[in-house]
Amino acid sequence: MEATSELYDRIVDKSLLIRRLNITTNHVIREADAEQEVRYEQPNLFTDYDTLQVKRNKGQAELDREKKMQKVALTRYDDAVTEAARITGEKIGLDESSQAALDMKQYILMDVISEQPEITVAYFKKDERKACGAYLTLTDNLKKIDEYERVLVQPRN
Fold first, then answer.
1. Are both 105 and 145 inside the same structural domain?
2. Which stretches does DSSP call E strand in 11-143?
3. Which helix (H) or strand (E) holds 58?
4. Cα dist. 93→12, 98, 99, 100, 124 in Å?
5. Whether this model's pTM surpasses 0.70
6. For the chain, which ranges sit under pLDDT 70?
7. Fewer CB within 10 Å: N-end or C-end of the chain?
8. Does residue 146 belong to any structural domain of this protein?
């Protein structure tokens, strides 16, 4: 309103007897709606608007396809980097002395299994996607030993 008054004072001849200033506004909309407002174009007789619209649609489709391909490429790249970063290794074979030491520990555990001692076991888990795998450790109370297979049995939780 102040800007309008300043403009009025600058333009109007002070010697004339003008006593009223009327300001009206029409079609007032919010700024956010103005950005979404449909724009109109003056048609001419020499433009084939159907062909122009088809070209615009093709261009938009190409842009959409390119954006989608970029997104897929980035996603696949991230997946490949994540997969390559997973650390896997070969299963280590035991020599005879290590195997004998494990057998001795297993016999000791068979004697105290009724007490369900807490043990920590390192085991090799084969990777589902790679030829290698990883060594994992598990700490829990021992509940059962399969004497025939000579393995510790851990119930699945």
1. yes
2. 118-126, 133-141
3. helix 49-85
4. 101, 10, 10, 13, 11
5. no
6. 19, 37, 77-89, 155-157
7. C
8. yes
Beta bridge mates, 97: none
Residue 49, domain member (yes or no): yes
Based on the domain organization, do 104 and 72 belong to the same domain? no
CB 133 within 8 A of CB 124: yes
87-128 pLDDT, tens digit each: 566 777 778 888 888 888 888 888 888 888 888 888 778 877
The alpha carbon of residue 148 and the mean position of all alpha carbons in its chain are separated, in whole angstroms, by 48
Same domain, 102 and 126: yes
Token pair belonging to 100: 């004998």
Number of domains observed in the structure of the chain: 2
In a domain, 117, yes or no: yes
Q: What DSSP element (H or E) covers 151?
A: strand 151-153
Domain identity same for 79 and 120 = no
Taking the mean position of all CA atoms in its chain, how far away is CA 134? Answer: 26
Amino acid at 101: A
Is the torsion defined by CA of 140, 145, 146, 152 positive or negative? positive
- Angstrom distance (rounded) from CA 125 to CA 143: 21
Helix (H) or strand (E) holding 146: strand 144-146
| Domain boundaries, position 129 | 96-153
In a domain, 23, yes or no: no
Pairing status of strand 151-153 against strand 144-146: antiparallel
